[in-house]
Design goal:
By secondary structure, the protein is an alpha+beta fold. It has one domain: Purple Acid Phosphatase, chain A, domain 2. It has helices at about 1-15, 165-175, 200-215, 240-245, 285-295, 325-340, 455-460, 465-470; strands at about 25, 55-60, 70-75, 80-85, 95, 100, 105, 110, 110-120, 125-130, 140-145, 155-160, 180-185, 220, 265, 270-275, 305-310, 345, 350-355, 360, 375, 380-385, 405-410, 415-420, 425-435, 435-445. An 8-stranded mixed sheet has the order 1-23-19-22-18-17-16-15, covered by helices on one side. The protein is globular and about 65 Å long. Residues about 5-20 and about 455-475 have low confidence and may be disordered. Bound molecules: 2-acetamido-2-deoxy-beta-D-glucopyranose (3 copies) and fe (ii) ion. One 2-acetamido-2-deoxy-beta-D-glucopyranose binds near residues 420, 423 and 424. One 2-acetamido-2-deoxy-beta-D-glucopyranose binds next to loops.
Length: about 475
């Protein structure tokens, strides 16, 4: 008991000493109402031409970034699933053949969903591509990432809980000004499940058309949230994730996953692990086995940056969804600390929050510290469920702000993570501020494996690193 008091006191002093007491931002602004953009708005318009490809989006198609999966929908007829591509605009020397699928949801019949894997690409190259036929053909481009290399620089965006309101559009447009090359999406895409019957399918289509302005040109790395589950017995729809799985393919086989809802990719200097908050994850489940194996495969000498995506945050001090991540935290937090994950991004809570490096792994049901403590080897937890969907903001934070919470604000926005090299990355959270993009929270992230200035490497050689790095410390990043 005394020991605990002493520990709490020293924890408190630590935060005071460093001047790093958590901040709750009081920022309030006039915002767009949280309503979906009406169907007739031009940003949701169907492209002109008979059977023109629509809802075009790409994702990484393999483990290392030399392939993309291009997905689109044709509404009038099956049409062609062929992608023509090449190194300059209008000069398509290569073709790839895709596959066609369709599904029903209640009485809604989806369009023809084309998925085409374009593989064997060169790294760091701009490709132009064309889909559709004749007058209805449409042209886009994308860039492949640099080769997997510890010092490859790369800029990611992070978006969550996007939806299809005017706030969603604002987030999307601000993101597109950021210069980032790929989105790490932390779940809850269209919020189509807030509609009923045939409108669910209709709103998946409008969402696909809304985001095409970005997703046709750069890969978004998808993870699933609760709004993807769509378990609706009253409509006879009980197959979970049906719309999401039909429309947003992931390269799960490339990481030996048995399920599209959890998988990993490597991109430039990052190893990205996508988890499913709404699939079984306790010990012995397929996701647990897969994650255990995937974490062992991570090679920080090749991909220094280890990033995990999930929908439900493990640390959240908002009244909304408070403690919903506890079960996954109990299952996986120990691994995240052991493998020195750099950052864990989550969504779900419609606000922004960043944690200090803390862990709560000493607690077990028969004893130990039952609260989070500063832990230099732990990840930083960031919640960006603030994309701007029709449910509105989660504006009630718990009071007082817990010690683990570094910064929190209930407004809309997106983040970027700009990796410079193996030791440094710059992180920004950009609020949507009355039509402007305003950086509100930012810091320099030092790699958890390489540290700053290659210190880690030196320690490795001297076999001192476990002694020094495993001790909880006052330095938080
Ligand atoms: C898929 O499309 C084919 C061809 O138009 C059609 O016959 C079939 O009913 C559709 N299937 C579903 C599940 O909608
Ligand atoms: C649980 O924590 C207590 C106190 O730290 C410790 O003595 C015990 O060995 C732990 N038990 C397990 C199973 O880790
Ligand atoms: C890594 O990037 C940081 C930030 O730009 C820079 O200060 C540092 O010198 C770089 N390190 C190396 C080894 O290039
Ligand atoms: Fe959610």
């Amino acid at each position: 008991m005394l020991l605990h008091l002493f520990f709490l006191l020293s924890l408190f002093l630590t935060f005071i000493d460093n001047g790093t007491a958590g901040k709750t931002s009081a920022f309030v602004r006039t915002q767009f109402p949280s309503v979906d953009i009406p169907l007739e708005n031009e940003v949701l318009a169907v492209p002109k031409g008979y059977n023109a490809p629509q809802q075009v989006h790409i994702s990484q198609g393999d483990y290392n970034g030399k392939a993309v999966i291009i997905t689109w929908v044709t509404a009038d007829a099956p049409g062609s699933s062929q992608v023509r591509y090449g190194l300059s605009k209008g000069k398509y020397d290569f073709t790839a053949e895709g596959t066609l699928t369709n599904y029903t949801f209640y009485k809604y019949k989806s369009g023809y969903i084309h998925q085409c894997l374009v593989s064997g690409l060169q790294y760091d190259t701009k490709y132009y591509y064309e889909i559709g036929k004749g007058d209805s053909a449409r042209n886009f481009w994308f860039e492949t990432p640099p080769e997997v290399d510890p010092d490859a620089s790369y800029k990611f965006g992070i978006i969550g809980d996007l939806g299809q309101t005017y706030n969603s559009l604002s987030t999307l447009q601000h993101y597109m000004q950021s210069g980032a090359k790929s989105v790490l999406f932390v779940g809850d895409l269209s919020y189509a499940d807030r509609y009923q019957y045939n409108d669910v399918g209709v709103r998946w289509d409008t969402f696909g058309r809304l985001i095409e302005q970005s997703t046709a040109y750069q890969p978004w790395i998808w993870s699933a949230g609760n709004h993807e589950i769509e378990y609706f017995p009253y409509m006879g729809e009980v197959f979970p994730f049906r719309s999401f799985l039909s429309r947003y393919p992931t390269p799960y086989r490339a990481s030996k996953s048995s399920n599209p809802l959890w998988y990993a990719i490597r991109r430039a200097s990052a190893h990205i692990i996508v988890l499913s908050s709404y699939s079984p994850f306790v010990k012995y489940t397929p996701q647990w086995h897969w994650l255990k194996h995937e974490l062992k495969k991570v090679n920080r000498e090749k991909t220094p940056w280890l990033i995990v995506l999930m929908h439900v945050p493990l640390y959240n001090s908002n009244e909304a969804h408070f403690m919903e991540g506890e079960s996954m935290r109990a299952a996986y937090e120990r691994w995240f600390v052991k493998y020195r994950v750099d950052i864990i991004f989550a969504g779900h809570v419609h606000a922004y929050e960043r944690s200090y490096r803390i862990s709560n792994i000493h607690y077990n049901v028969s004893g130990g510290d039952a609260y989070p403590v500063p832990d230099k080897t732990a990840p930083i937890y960031i919640t960006v469920g603030d994309g701007g969907n029709s449910e509105g903001l989660a504006s009630r934070f718990r009071d007082p702000q817990p010690e683990y919470s570094a910064f929190r604000e209930a407004s809309y926005g997106h983040s970027t993570l700009e990796i410079k090299n193996r030791t440094h990355a710059f992180y920004h959270w950009n609020r949507n501020d009355d039509g402007n993009k305003v950086t509100t929270d930012s810091f320099t992230l030092h790699n958890q494996y390489w540290g700053s200035g290659g210190r880690r490497r030196k320690l490795n050689k001297n076999h001192l690193h476990t002694l020094i790095l495993d001790r909880p410390s006052t330095a938080l990043f």
